[in-house]
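Input record, target 12 of the design panel.
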């Protein structure tokens, strides 16, 4: 507990913020990638501490936020089957597809269940051999090893009624897509420490060189983020572009070699649509041909009846690219709230819209809604 308190100590936070402001000779624009980091920034007021020296932009946030409408529509189509039990993490039940969400499907009688790990889904398949158990697998590279382990276990145990609808996304290619967007304003990235704990930093090094911008791997406490921001500003002021690791207590350049090997065995890299960003080359994972018998897309090839559609008033895509702050969306806090979300960033506990609603709604209300 004392260790955590050190990274939340007010005096250390103020000194670190002052150091960032001392180093910056202009207002640099730095994007944090992870929604957990976004919540820390807003809860601790780090963006306000750095105002005038650094503008903190909010990136994709979390895999729940960027899961495509097409994937949600396919999950809804599977849930509608009488022989399927669809299971996933709790946040996914409220993410809107084109015509509703999984929570609504359950209310209408579909067998949709919440689990806490993919191994829970596998155990459900063992206990209910008469049902087809489909696990909707979402996540950055952090959750891919657990899903890979469940699939490997299903193969060893010969569990024939278990399959996975894979929606895993990969962070490094998304940074390229964001930076290549015409409305991109990013000067540097703060990469997510938990992703790099698993996958290491080797994929980020060529990106930093090719895009000519710093990438700093940070943790999730206020002091982590300020220290990471200081490292990014130092590079920007010197005209450098490399990968730095602030979160050295958890991240090694090589990552977790055993987890990486398991992911390589079970999955292959594919292009994948990200909500709000579009199709990201190499931006996702799919089951390798050796494990195709566990692929729900192959086992149940039917798709949704209509093309995927985003709610017209929702500007979640702009928020996910860092081109728009949530309060600048006309729906924010009005037609879009955590109770009635229009976009995934308001659903997810790590979404930027949910963070602003929780920590800044009073400020927005006092200024007058846009």
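The sequence produced for target 12 reads:
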């Amino acid at each position: 507990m004392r260790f955590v308190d050190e990274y939340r100590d007010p005096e250390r936070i103020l000194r670190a913020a002052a150091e960032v402001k001392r180093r910056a000779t202009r207002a640099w624009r730095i994007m944090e990638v992870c929604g957990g980091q976004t919540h820390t920034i807003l809860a601790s007021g780090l963006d306000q501490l750095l105002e005038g020296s650094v503008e903190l932009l909010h990136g994709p946030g979390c895999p729940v936020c960027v899961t495509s409408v097409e994937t949600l529509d396919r999950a809804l189509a599977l849930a509608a089957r009488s022989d399927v039990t669809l299971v996933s993490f709790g946040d996914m039940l409220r993410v809107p597809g084109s015509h509703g969400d999984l929570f609504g499907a359950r209310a209408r009688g579909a067998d949709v269940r919440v689990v806490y790990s993919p191994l829970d889904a596998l155990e459900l398949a063992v206990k209910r051999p008469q049902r087809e158990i489909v696990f909707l697998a979402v996540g950055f590279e952090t959750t891919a090893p657990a899903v890979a382990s469940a699939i490997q276990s299903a193969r060893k145990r010969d569990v024939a009624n278990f399959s996975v609808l894979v929606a895993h996304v990969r962070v490094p290619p998304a940074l390229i897509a964001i930076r290549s967007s015409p409305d991109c304003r990013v000067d540097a990235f703060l990469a997510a420490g938990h992703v790099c704990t698993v996958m290491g930093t080797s994929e980020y090094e060529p990106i930093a060189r090719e895009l000519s911008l710093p990438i700093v791997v940070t943790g999730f406490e206020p002091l982590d983020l300020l220290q990471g921001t200081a490292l990014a500003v130092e590079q920007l002021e010197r005209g450098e572009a490399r990968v730095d690791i602030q979160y050295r207590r958890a991240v090694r350049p090589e990552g977790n070699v055993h987890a990486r090997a398991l992911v390589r065995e079970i999955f292959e890299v594919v292009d994948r649509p990200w909500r709000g960003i579009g199709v990201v080359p190499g931006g996702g994972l799919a089951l390798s041909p050796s494990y195709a018998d566990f692929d729900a897309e192959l086992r149940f090839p039917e798709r949704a009846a209509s093309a995927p559609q985003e709610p017209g008033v929702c500007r979640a895509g702009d928020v996910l690219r860092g081109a728009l702050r949530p309060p600048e969306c006309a729906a924010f806090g009005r037609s879009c709230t955590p109770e009635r979300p229009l976009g995934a960033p308001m659903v997810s506990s790590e979404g930027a819209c949910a963070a602003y609603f929780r920590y800044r709604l009073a400020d927005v209300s006092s200024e007058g809604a846009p």
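Residues 222-238 form the longest helix (17 residues).
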